[in-house]
Every structure is written in structure tokens, then in C-alpha cells.
Write a structure and sequence with these properties.
Blueprint (H helix, E strand, L loop, with lengths): L2 E4 L10 H14 L5 H17 L3 H7 L4 E10 L5 E12 L5 E7 L5 H17 L5 E7 L8 H15 L8 E5 L5 H10 L26 H16 L8 E5 L5 H10 L3 E7 L2 E4 L6 H11 L9 E3 L11 E4 L18 E3 L8 H9 L3 E3 L1 H4 L2 H15 L5 H26 L3 H20 L4
Parallel strand pairs: 4-5, 4-6, 7-8, 7-11, 11-12, 12-13
Antiparallel strand pairs: 1-2, 2-3, 3-5, 8-9, 9-10
Length: 444
């Protein structure tokens, strides 16, 4: 196993700006400049920094990760061969508290994407005023191609490898794309002392100190913000239509919540295809179909359409809830929704966003829209440290309060500053993180 650590940015005042700028330039070149999620994350940070007039030293500190760790994990395959799999953990900022962020399991995971996701987590935690910094992790493997035994061994190896920089007071992993409660249970058990402290990870099974409401938290948050955005636009949710791209952990729950509020969900897609019913899809029947077949494709009570076509449906609200980068300069001119609510992280690229805003399409950024997961992860962490568990109604009530308050702050700031919701949300978050860095006296 090999490990590479990128040390924290130097803290001496007379050495601060130049070395940090050099590190930022090196990471920028390594990340391929302004391409992909990392380029989008940096562009959003720059827009917020300009709005704030951010001090150059603070800008230097917040523009690069605090720490990165890459490990190579041996994976023994059934044929007796050994494959080396890369695992990453990036801590963007710990200024406001321990790192917080999920672990992604994907063959397409790479360090640049993890860097972007970690930066977004920093802003997301700050936006919701959580006592966390931002972090993210990934294992570059397709879990669907592994047997359960070899997959569990790989997850446990990763947990042990990153243990020097993770823990309940240091950096708390959680589920992300390709992972869930089982993986968190394995990581907890593999932690030093057998995960005796239940706060070492969140998103755990209830039997191991998980929280009520955690599984549905992101979906509920997305739906809550989507309804607020509709009302802000003067649209009655009971007369609104919606399309959802991605019918997994986030999209499925968000679609069901919107439907319960009276929104007519007319189109849904996943990686294998899509389905449409202009009068509104029967979502419980669709969910049962997915449980039986593994996909929305072939749903008998809807018309088949390509997954990508769901992104261009003429609806009031579009929720891209699958992966990053699905709305780009190539399809932005065909997007017909009045409002886009980002259920996934980074589903709208920077170039696409500029074109969409020019056409008057409002984008509720991932930073705000999908924050329900980390909010309830925070609730789980608090409950684990207190040894006192809340019921589901209490969790949902506290989550709704946080979502509504954060929405109000962002919407008010956007109106006051004359900027879009993403810039307002990022500026609010960066301002809070910068204040923490400044209070620590570590900006230069």
C-alpha cells in the first residue's frame, strides 16, 4: 500500500501567499485547467470571491485542499490475480470543524472530481451552519463487478488506510454514489478500536447508531427547496409539473415527495432509460416496477423515451439527481424547464449555467438543494455523541427548519446583491468559512 499526502498550506505570514498560489497553480494544471467538476467548483468560488472582495491570503488558503491522501489497495480477484485499486480522501477545509463528506464507489472516480466535491462540501456545511469542514472520498471501482466478500474486504482496507486522517473529531465519512449503510457499517467496524465511537461515520444502520430519517434526508431536502422555488416563481405546486433525471436514492424520494405535495411528475429516467406520462406518472407503481426490474425502462404505464430526453422535457421543475455534468453546452439550449433544482452534485456545468441564466431559467444550486443529507448526517453525529436518539418526526422537523432558513438567507441575499442563487449561496458560505479562518489567525 502506498500513500501520498499533500501537506497543509504553510501558515507563516511572510510565506503564505506565494506558496499557496504556487500550489493552486500546480493543482490547476494537474486538474486540466478549467475543465470538469473541478473547473466548475473553482469558477463558482472565484465568482463568490469577487463578490466578497476576498482578501488575497484568504483566497489562497481556500482555493486549494488542506490535505489529500491517495492509497493503493490490493484487490484479490476470484481468478487469483491481484488488482491495485486507487482510493482517495480529500479534506478541503477544516476551519469550521472536522471534515465531513461521503465516500463514492465508482470506476470513474478520480482525484480531481474528489477535490471538487470536497470544496463543495466545505461550502455546503457552512451554508447550513454546521460545525464541519468539507471532505470527500472515493474508491475507483465498480461495486457491481465485485462479489460481496471481495467488496467488503476492499472497503475495510480503505477504512484502515485512511484511518490516520479520519475519525469522529477529525473527518467523518458518509455514503455517496455507490455506497450506503452497509459500507458505513464495515468502515465503522474497521476503524481503530472497532469503531467504539459511533460518530466515526454517519449513514450507518439504525442498529449501529444510525439516525431515523437519514436515508430519505437528501430527497426530502430537494423536494422542500423545489416547492419553495416554485412559490418564489409564483407557481402553485398543485398546478406544476416536474421531471426527474435519476431515480435512485435522491431522485426517487424527491419525486414521491413532490407528488404528495400535488406536483405532477411527468417524466423520470435512470441510466437504462426513461418513461413519460403527460397526465402524471403513477409513482408508487413506478417504484414497484423499479424494485422488480432494476430500472424505470419498460414501465408499462408510461411512454418510453431516452434518458437524456428527460433533461429537455417542458416542465416547471427539472431535478437532475443522478451524477455531475449532465447538462452541458451541448444540450443547454434544449432545456425547457423554468426551474432546475440540482439534486446531484454539479449536474449543470458552468458553461451551460451561463446559457441557462441568459434564457431566464433559475437554477437552485446543489449547495443548497441537496444539503439535507449532510444536515441529517450532522444530526446523526450529534445523537451518537450524546447517546440520545431522536424519532423520525423530530428529525424531519429539524431538517425542514434548516432547509427553509437556508433557502430564505440565500434568496434574500440573491435579491439584495442582484446575483443568481448559486453565487449568493457560495458567497454566504465562503464568507462564513473565511471568518473561521480569520478567527483562527491562519490566513497568512
Amino acid at each position: 500500500m502506498s500513500t501520498t499526502l499533500v501537506p497543509p498550506v504553510p501558515r507563516h505570514r511572510d510565506m503564505m501567499t506565494a506558496p499557496a498560489a504556487a500550489i493552486a497553480a500546480r493543482l490547476h494544471r494537474a486538474g486540466g485547467g478549467a475543465r470538469g467538476p473541478l473547473g466548475d467548483a473553482r469558477a463558482q468560488f472565484e465568482a463568490a470571491s469577487r463578490l466578497l472582495g476576498l482578501d488575497p491570503a484568504l483566497h489562497a488558503v481556500l482555493s486549494v485542499p488542506h490535505r489529500e491522501m491517495t492509497v493503493m489497495l490490493p484487490l484479490r480477484r476470484p481468478d487469483g490475480t491481484t488488482e491495485m485499486v486507487a482510493g482517495h480522501r480529500v479534506q478541503h477545509s477544516l476551519a469550521r470543524g472536522p471534515g465531513k463528506g461521503g465516500i463514492r464507489f465508482s470506476a470513474h472516480a478520480d482525484l480531481d472530481t474528489v477535490r471538487a466535491l470536497a470544496m463543495w462540501m466545505t461550502w455546503k456545511c457552512a451554508l447550513f451552519d454546521l460545525p464541519f469542514g468539507g471532505a470527500k472520498g472515493a474508491i475507483a471501482v465498480d461495486p457491481g463487478g465485485l462479489g460481496r466478500g471481495e467488496y467488503e474486504r476492499l472497503v475495510r482496507r480503505y477504512a484502515r488506510a485512511v484511518a490516520p486522517i479520519t475519525g469522529a473529531d477529525t473527518d467523518i465519512p458518509a455514503p455517496d454514489v455507490g455506497s450506503g449503510a452497509d459500507e458505513m457499517a464495515w468502515m465503522m467496524d474497521a476503524a481503530p478500536a472497532g469503531g467504539a465511537g459511533w460518530g466515526v461515520v454517519t449513514g450507518k444502520p439504525l442498529a449501529l447508531g444510525g439516525s431515523q430519517g437519514r436515508a430519505a434526508a437528501t430527497s426530502l431536502g430537494v423536494a422542500t427547496v423545489a416547492l419553495l422555488a416554485l412559490r418564489r416563481a409564483g407557481i402553485d405546486p398543485r398546478e406544476a409539473t416536474a421531471a426527474v433525471h435519476g431515480f435512485g436514492k435522491v431522485g426517487r424520494g424527491a419525486a414521491l415527495e413532490l407528488s404528495r405535495a400535488g406536483v405532477r411528475v411527468t417524466a423520470v429516467a435512470d441510466v437504462r432509460g426513461g418513461t413519460r406520462a403527460l397526465d402524471g406518472l403513477d409513482l408508487p407503481a413506478l417504484a414497484a416496477h423499479v424494485d422488480a426490474t432494476g430500472s424505470v425502462a419498460g414501465f408499462p404505464d408510461g411512454d418510453a423515451l431516452a434518458a437524456a430526453d428527460v433533461l429537455t422535457e417542458a416542465v416547471d421543475v427539472l431535478i437532475p439527481a443522478a451524477v455531475e455534468g449532465v447538462i452541458t453546452h451541448e444540450n443547454a439550449d434544449r432545456v425547457s424547464a423554468r426551474i432546475i433544482v440540482e439534486g446531484a452534485n454539479g449536474p449543470v456545468t458552468s458553461t451551460a449555467e451561463a446559457a441557462l441564466r441568459h434564457r431566464g431559467i433559475e437554477i437552485v444550486p446543489d449547495l443548497l438543494a441537496n444539503g439535507g443529507g449532510v444536515v441529517v448526517s450532522y444530526f446523526e453525529w450529534v445523537q451518537a455523541r450524546q447517546g440520545w436518539w431522536w424519532d423520525a418526526a423530530d428529525v424531519e422537523h429539524r431538517l425542514a427548519q434548516r432547509m427553509r432558513e437556508s433557502w430564505r438567507l440565500v434568496a434574500d441575499r440573491a435579491s439584495a446583491e442582484g446575483v443568481d442563487l448559486r453565487t449568493a449561496a457560495t458567497a454566504l458560505a465562503v464568507e462564513r468559512v473565511a471568518a473561521a479562518v480569520r478567527a483562527r489567525g491562519s490566513e497568512g
